[in-house]
Design a protein that fits this description.
The protein is α/β, with parallel strands linked by helices and 336 residues long. 37% of the residues lie in helices and 12% in strands. The protein has one domain: TIM Barrel (Alpha-Beta Barrel), CATH 3.20.20.
Amino acid sequence: MLNTGLRMARKTLHKRRWQRFPQVIQIDTNNFCGKPYCSIECSYCYPQWKIAQGKRHYKIMPTNYIELIIDQIAKYGKHEMDLIDFFLNGDGFTEPRLPELNRYAKQRLPITITQTFTNGICYKNYEAALSLDRVCFTISAHNRELYKVVHRGDMFFDALHGLELILDNRRENQQVEVHCVLTKDNIPYVKDWWNFFGRNYPDAVRILSPLVASYDNLPSKEAMGNYSLDDMEKIVIDVAGSEGRMWTRELIPDEKPCVLWDNMSIDVGGEILKCCNWSPPEDVNFGNIYEMEKEGYNLKDAWRRRLINRYDNKLCQSCNMRHPNWIQRLAAMKLR
């Protein structure tokens, strides 16, 4: 049986929408990325770093398990949910099931946004992503030479080709984003990146993303170099102004301790992670969704358990994303 903390969580009651159920759920439908699939090895990527070390293995989440997650969202949180992200540790263009997954999600959750992330390189599979409401590209360089440094592979023009295929063939109202993850290598050229994509791909929404680093996220810490999160946030604001921000701490609303506090991530193995910040699922999770379902528990129970155990999270204690007064924000949450 699951521990008593999960049973006790059912007695909680929360006022805010994000305290009742996550507003964003990321589902790791597969974790295919990196050199076997797209010939790059991004300098800041924690999941593929773990795979390269032999500490993780490539997997596929069975379709019926993904449908189970969507069913639980529809049953317990459809009024709270804003977004289903068919992405966590893999690349969206490696997932051929996107059309059927999107179709099932829209049947059960018709107003919920569906999206995925991709680096664009596996562009032969781009058509699968045309079914989604939003496709997000991570292309953190604006020329071939810088791309080889940041993404560790000579695939810049392939990435642009993938972006162009989606832009040229997208459905009406389908949103396309292009993201730049800030690193010590591309920060000196971030204005050039902003101008390049604005000039050449005006239909894509540009997003600048500061790097997040938690207790064991060594690739992100290395990629940040001597830049602090404050430095990165200032660059985002100076370059992008009021648009093009994925997040900055000043934008954290509703007394949340961090911008990701309304986010639930489920690893390819079914582990419900305490945070989507690339935390090792074997160390930091609230249990396995399949085992929970067998025991009679659900995603809402897991969410309540997260709030009950909100102080006992080494990710929050070390993460650079948290709001400066995150402890006070946690303490202000009403639980009864």
